[in-house]
Amino acid sequence: MAKIQKQTMHELVSQEIQNFIEEKEMQEGDKLPSVEAMTHMFGVGRSSLREALRYLEAIEVITVVNGKGIYVRDVGTYRFAGKIKVENEKRFLLSILDVRRALEGKAVELAAKRITPAQIVELTECLDEYARLKESGKPTGQIDLAFHRGIMKAASNPILFSVLESISAMYEKFFNEPLGEQRLFDETYPYHHTMFEAIAAHNPELALAEFNKLMDCIESIIRTY
């Protein structure tokens, strides 16, 4: 039986925007309504709308021109009733992966320097739960996400953490079976342990090296999907 996929608010809003483009038969270069107008049209807050716009811009459905407006980029390629084609999802994930490398890479280094004994215990318990779910054949996406968030918190940098939170819906794409591919979790699983061991040993260089192996593994899977 196929799993029911839970959609985030920005995905729902982005789908409504795409439906609007199609219903109005808009063409490349046509200007969309303003942010304020669309919040009223779709009955959503500005933050949800802006996140949907960032999402659509990342997959090249629209172009946002500061001070001028929001424009349709390419309707011919992207008429897919809200479902992103595989090639576009791959490109989107690879773009966000670059951001993950920058944000999490720094967080991993800081966590290796600043992690507390209590946080080591929390992450150990998180990995134990990860192992239990994996061995029982249950989904591991959310515990994987919890592990990475735990590292971000262990970095003890609220600004870095808030930047991650600002793109959380995009970031979390990696933890909801991206491309419908459980393999991404299975093949990166060992690096979670080696990275954590280096963090717990307060070895930032080794922790970052293991993190980069994890990121390289994810990138390889996405590119060869």
Bulk shape: elongated
- Largest sheet data: 2 strands, antiparallel
The poorly predicted ranges are: 1-5, 79-84
Count every beta strand, where a strand is a DSSP E run of 2 or more residues: 2
CATH topology of the largest domain: Four Helix Bundle (Hemerythrin (Met), subunit A)
Q: Domains counted in the coordinates: how many?
A: 2
CATH first level of the largest domain: which class?
Mainly Alpha
GO molecular function: DNA binding; DNA-binding transcription factor activity
Protein name: GntR family transcriptional regulator
Pfam family, one: FCD
Keywords: DNA-binding, Transcription, Transcription regulation
3D architecture notes:
With 225 residues, this protein is mainly alpha-helical. The chain has two domains: 9-72, Winged helix-like DNA-binding domain superfamily/Winged helix DNA-binding domain (Arc Repressor Mutant, subunit A, Orthogonal Bundle); 86-224, GntR ligand-binding domain-like (Four Helix Bundle (Hemerythrin (Met), subunit A)), CATH 1.20.120. 67% of the residues lie in helices and 4% in strands. The protein contains ten helices and two strands. It has a two-stranded antiparallel ribbon with strand order 1-2. Helix 4 crosses helix 6 (141-154), helix 4 packs antiparallel against helix 10 and helix 5 packs antiparallel against helix 9. It is elongated, with a radius of gyration of 19 Å. It holds the Pfam family FCD. InterPro entries: GntR_C, TF_FadR/GntR_C, Tscrpt_reg_HTH_GntR, WH-like_DNA-bd_sf, WH_DNA-bd_sf.
